[in-house]
């Protein structure tokens, strides 16, 4: 059994109520390694976690293991009822890196139509704000002057 597979089993057994029912399946193909975790139906909530945060944490912990071994590791949780979490959508290929948001592209020959590209907004260059001229006042403009003879007050 490989280290990554043992690691996933170890973490899963630590958080479930039925550790005897936990086992991980490791499949190696051209895209890298896929680890599928099998658990008891009652423990699905513990392994997935609230809003999937525990499953995301397990994936995050697998990243340095994958980096050290210079390979890609995929992780998914198999549900005994037949559903599989983390599985690719049918008719699409995921082009994203591990842990990155999925970028799905239709597979050639699939029944799924290709999505239309989103229109790009027209580029409008920003204009610089108008430059305000400084107000220059002379001392004579601001003063009230009173003249008496040659004297100016």
Main beta-sheet annotation: 4 strands, mixed
- Strand fraction band? 15-25%
Structural class: alpha+beta
Number of strands: 8
Helical amount among residues, as a percent range? 25-40%
What is the chain-wise order of helices and strands?
Answer: HEEHHEEEEHEE
Shape: elongated
CATH homologous superfamily assignment of the domain at 3-89: K homology (KH) domain
Total number of helical segments?
A: 4
Q: What is the average per-residue confidence, as pLDDT, rounded to a whole number?
A: 77
**From the 3D coordinates, which CATH architecture of the domain at 3-89 would you assign?**
2-Layer Sandwich
Strand order of the largest sheet: 1-2-3-4
Straight-line N-to-C gap: 102 Å
Task: Please tell me about this protein's structure.
This protein has 153 residues and is an alpha+beta fold. It is built from four helices and eight strands. The N and C termini lie far apart (102 Å). It has a domain of 87 residues: GMP Synthetase, Chain A, domain 3, CATH 3.30.300. The strands form three sheets. A four-stranded mixed beta sheet has the order 1-2-3-4.
